[in-house]
Amino acid sequence: MKKSSISTAVLAGLLATVALAGCKKKEDTADNNAQPAAMTPAPTPAPAPEPMAAAAAVNVSSVTVGKTAAADKTVAPAALFAPKDEILVSVRTDGTANNVNVAAKLTYQDGQVAGEQTHTLNTTGAETSNLKFTNANGWPAGKYRAEVTVDGKAAGTPQEFEVK
Question: Using an 8 Å Cβ cutoff, are 140 and 57 in contact?
């Protein structure tokens, strides 16, 4: 019986030693792997938002595709063009803009870009910008679409027309 008491005591002592060593080992491991506070990189702050006053202050009130402009820059809408016609994309804006890009892109049938024009808008009220498209070789027959962007964001209603 003495033998099993001694064996039990030795076994209990070994388990306690292993348990303490295991705890100590984990503590040492955690300390050895932790980086000092000075070496931990600080989180990168989020970039400041871009000023949006110019983009938010101007709105596209209408987009018109036509052939000619009147003295006040208004364009009569047209849906059918001849191959040699000049195509005008008229963009009516309201609001205040300072160096705001107004762009028009013409796409042909399956999305091929047929032309792109950009105008810099500086205004404190209503303004009409006419972007002109010509093709010395003549526009190929087919369906086209005019899309307008203001500062790179879609604006106004895309217009569809045809060249015959």
Answer: no
CB-based contact 65:92 (threshold 8 Å): no
Do 69 and 80 form a contact (C-beta atoms < 8 A)?
no
Q: 90 with 132: CB under 8 angstroms? A: no
Q: Going residue by residue through the chain, which has 164 residues, state the pLDDT in tens, using 9 for 90 and above.
A: 444 555 555 445 544 554 545 554 444 444 455 454 445 455 555 554 443 333 458 999 999 999 999 999 999 999 999 999 999 999 999 999 899 999 999 999 989 999 999 999 999 999 999 999 999 999 999 999 999 999 999 999 999 999 99
Residues 6+ apart with CB under 8 A from 63: 89, 90, 91, 92, 146, 148, 156, 157, 158, 159
